[in-house]
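To close the chapter, one final illustration. This time we ask the reader to focus less on the individual chains and more on the assembly as a whole: which components sit near each other, and how the overall shape emerges from the parts.
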Amino acid sequence: MRIMLLSVFILIQSLLFSQTNVDSYTLGSMDARPLGPGTMSGRITAIEGVNAENGKLLYIGTAGGGIWKTINAGASFKPIFDKYCQSIGSIAIDQKNPKVIYAGTGESNMRNSVSVGDGLYKSTDGGDNWAKIGLDSTEHIARVIIDQSNSDIIYVAAPGPLWHDSPHRGLYKSTNAGKTWEKILYISPKAGCAEVVIDPKQPNTLYATTWEFRRTPYSFESGGSGSGIFKSTDGGETWNELKNGLPPKPFGRVAFALAPSSPQNLFAIVEAEKTGLYISSDGGQSWKSQSASKNVVSRPFYFSTLVVDPHDPKRVYRPAYSFAYSSDGGFSYAEAGNEGAWVHSDHHALWINPLNTNHLYLGTDGGVYMSLDKGGSWTFFQNLPVGQFYHVDYDKKDPYRIYGGLQDNGSWMGPSSAPGGVTSSDWKAVYGGDGFWVVPDPTDENTVYAESQGGDISRINLATFKKISIRPQQTDKEEKLRWNWNTPIVMGQANPKNLYTGAQYLYRSKDQGRTWERISPDLTTNDKLKQQQESNGGLSADITSAENHTTIFTITESPLDENIIWVGTDDGNLQVTTDGGKSWTNLAKNVAASGIPYRTWVSSIELSASDKNVVYASFDNHMYGDHQTYAAMSADGGNTWKKFESKEFSGFAHKIVVDKENKNLLFLGTEMGLFSSIDNGGIWFRMKNNNIPWYTLVRDIKIHPVTNDLIVGTHGRGVFVFDDITGMRNLSKEVVEKDVVFFPPPPLVLTMGKLGSNGFPPTGGWTVPNAPELPAFQYYLKEKLSSVAAKIEIYDKTGNMVQSVNGTTRKGINKLYWTQRIKPPKTAAGGTKRDVGAFIAPQVLPGDYTLKLIVGKNEYTQPLKVLHQDVDGFTVADRELQYKTALELFKMHEDLAQTVADISDKQKELKDLRTKIKNEKLIKQVNAYHDQLETLRATLLPTKQVSMFADESRLREDITEVYANVCFTEQVPNNMQIERVKFLRTQVDNAAVKKKQLDDAFEKKSGAAFAKEVEKLKAVTAK
Amino acid sequence: MKSFKFASLAFIALFFSTFLFAQTADEVINKHLEAIGGKENWKKVNSFKMEANINVQGNDIPVTIYQVHNKASKSEINFQGTVNYNIITTEGGWKFFPIMGQASPEPLTEDELKVGRDQLDIQGDFLDYTAKGHKAELLGTEAVEGTDAYKVRLTRKNGSETVYLIDSKTNYIVRAISKVKANGQEIEQTTILSNYQKLPEGIVIPFTMEGVGPAPIVISKVEVNPTIDQAIFKVAQ
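The assembled structure is written out below.
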């Protein structure tokens, strides 16, 4: 028995160890750039403030971007939930001890694209550290509240899973601050709890609403016998259903509110056969129906927010499709229409500052707004980058532009880098509605294709922003066209003139959508039972194309052959043609043989650029309640499939990508993270690179063919760019086994950048630094090294070390940047002003160099080719003259530094001596000598400047001025600069001469007497 | 047989979880103290003089750091002939950066002084921390640059907090994260420590520190227990 135990132990250990070298940290310092943008932001699900902080300290929960904290009323936000599930349902703060925060994951605005949560989290230090404390399987949490009279009592309303029956729903209560939970209101596996409200004056009095709801891939239903409104007066032990005056059941979702300052006053918007507003003034014993406008009562499943002012029971807010408010106790509602009143539609959160109830924060489908006049006007926060992209794309401009469509925020494009960094205002709107595919035409830089929901496709001229609808139309040869909510628009990879889109049929255009050809029969299952969308919604009709089904979802043309096209459908068909659409083969059964459930939604298909038979695909079965990560590859054209397995995986899969350079390098994006493999899918690891949330909702992944950037589109955190992944391409099974690997640097082109350094630091918007304009030297370390330093020394071909740069010693890829410059000169010391000359160095000349990586005592060398490229007429000859001139100025700085040092040394010596000598005549001469030296020194560097606005320029600064201009411009020095260099050289030489003359004069006049005094002093000291 | 397998797996799982997680703050701290040379060696440390460089754009800026245990510290930056410094003593603190246009030394703000005084304990927060009135709490583990680190929150007697990340393999501190107050706002300040070297006195200290300036500070020379003239901590006003 012991032996067996030991062998199991060894087996597990060997498994563990064989994987230790490849993990999330193998990528080392390959940081992501969070491009955002904040321009259009994304869906906000929860806003909670610390009451005592008067509207300055708030936590913002988002649909797919985690939790953000502001401590300055929105001047800046910081993400504080980046290691956990990103979909937030509710946040609660213990106002007595506001460092204690609860976060319920899984938002409960149950639209088609809603994400899922994985339980309830708690922080006791204001969001720095979090621990999961249970309710893992609820998937959706609508409300967390704390009994403010006893902070140990917590209530959690969990509507529960959306796509399947489950007992993990209802109202939960903890009486020990979240250690244990008891379910105190439970209806059925179909109906959960959607709201809980506590009576602040009698904390044993609770109101809860229950909700029965269900989605399938092709339908949505809100309503059923399980929905209702309940009241308890004993802390949830027993419940009474409230009915008197309410409409006949069944109910759908109920928006419910209580007036905190007058808690008998209740408000309910009840989804029913006739949805309406109901008001009670007796704690729910009786209700009165109240007429209300469509905005107040529409789309109850999505708009469940109803808030009463904490002090004024008459002031009721209904943030819904638009922002309505009542000043008469909820009887009549108005909407502001004045200047500054516009806010993004679709509201889900409102926080009222209890110390100043004019001060509101509103969460919408497009970010957070703040009002200082009770909602009369709003300020938008452009520094919250929580955009929900569905797809991203790029063009080949320099810098390239990124394109993408967002949930409820249209289609946009923005630069990957821009002067001063990419700011919110760099992003331009391309198209409206919900945005999905936004595809630049690779053959025409002024054309992009974009769409709104349900396949409303247009061709857009980027010069004029005019759009022309190009959606294919039904003819007498087709059934009614079925367009997915997120209809694919795809360009050919083998033939970039091919433009594809698909309903249930595949369409191809070779003329930018001016004419179309249908190149397939119905490629879906055409299951009529899944095409009943006209009766969708349940109690309230909801027909938005969001549930359109049995449609084409993904299309890919082989990079090797335009006649090979793969199509995946939302009902699980995987179809391929090898003859440009004449014949089609359905491979759904072959996929199922690999262990992926039959007819699972095909979310992406990726075709190899080197082998026609190699294909990858990802699958998404979450709409049947199955959240597993499904991705697979086939090496035989789809006949047999290997399903990828990994313990690291979580979340249903949206996108799989293979690198075109390194065919073993794969990326997989799921609802809960970005994953990578460097061995063609054998071992997978979660990408935890700096800045990217570990469980971010990855919808799309692209690799830029020119810059080698990995572009990731997320549904909740905007776009991330991993600049230049060539370091990842170098990782192979062999490489990762070695202790240290110094990757051969590609030839280095000399440059001073293209984008300048203008612009302001970010205040008021989301500004992202640009990609590094110089490539990094890269090396790999198997383990993090704690007891050694690393550096790279750069040698020219004569063996001179031109520069030495300190590096990092982290596990995985380490990056180190060299400015392409030699070491700067020693400049003259002293003076009353800082001179920058000591930080400026000439750019090196093109040629052969050697890099020496030193890690501890070990050295690794790599040759480096440094190249010149003519830019704006700057030739090699120009560069050589520039270098020569720069070196002359460099030398001047060092010569001047020597002269100044000589002067200073001498002055120090004189100062020292004159306090000791007694010979009055000699003292006078020494003083005069000292002063003459000072007069000379004052011509060489500033000695009087006291303010940074009183510029004093002396020889040192004069040299620096020319030196900087010569060193920092890609331009041959001009005639004036050359003249100036000669002149300055004379000045520097003169300074040395002058110093010598003063020395000589003193020597001649007083040398003998001085020497005598010095001797005397020495004799005294010796005694 | 089946039940046996299950039991053994459970045992192994338990073993692994014990191995990684069932540490107490004290165990982690003691291992750390051992790794950096042991309590006895550290108790002998009364002063440091360190010479270091900050490399900015290839230009080495020399820094000299003087520390007298629980009394005073001074960082001196020599640049272009100007002497810039930061002094923190039990009496007060001053900064003088003529390079930034300062004409005379200025007293440190209350907030700066508070942070600075926490660092006067040059034997380290963890040495005899309970006797000093500090509290330590193990928050869990967190990966830092690919190595698992214990996360220990140290709350000092005066209420200030630093979260230390201690490498579970080397037991060295790899990160120190402090909450610092500035302009009425709390900001997080992270110091990255690396390049640990053993000194002849038996103690081990990080020779590279990042996060405290524009570029990493790299130590080139350390003297342990040198005699430091107290006059250097006085400010010529």
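The first strand of chain A starts at residue 32 and ends at 36. The two ends of chain A are 88 Å apart (CA to CA). With these observations in hand, you are ready for the problems at the end of the chapter.
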